[in-house]
Design a protein that fits this description.
binds zinc ion; four-stranded mixed beta sheet; 56 residues; mainly beta
């Protein structure tokens, strides 16, 4: 799984005017899934299901 930082750098993601992460393909705001056992959050696109990890 890519990090959100790498996704932004690769053009898979972009930030909208509210600084929210969006999927570049679908132009949908990524949803957040928190797994208490992991040190990162998972961000997922509700449209295509692309997932990115976000370090906390
Ligand atoms: Zn998507």
């Amino acid at each position: 799984m890519k990090s959100t930082r790498k996704g932004l750098r690769d053009g898979d993601l972009f930030k909208d005017t509210y600084e929210r992460l969006n999927c570049a393909d679908c132009e949908k705001v990524l949803k957040k899934k928190n797994d208490p056992d992991e040190v990162f959050s998972v961000r997922v696109c509700p449209e295509c299901g692309a997932t990115f990890k976000e370090l906390r």
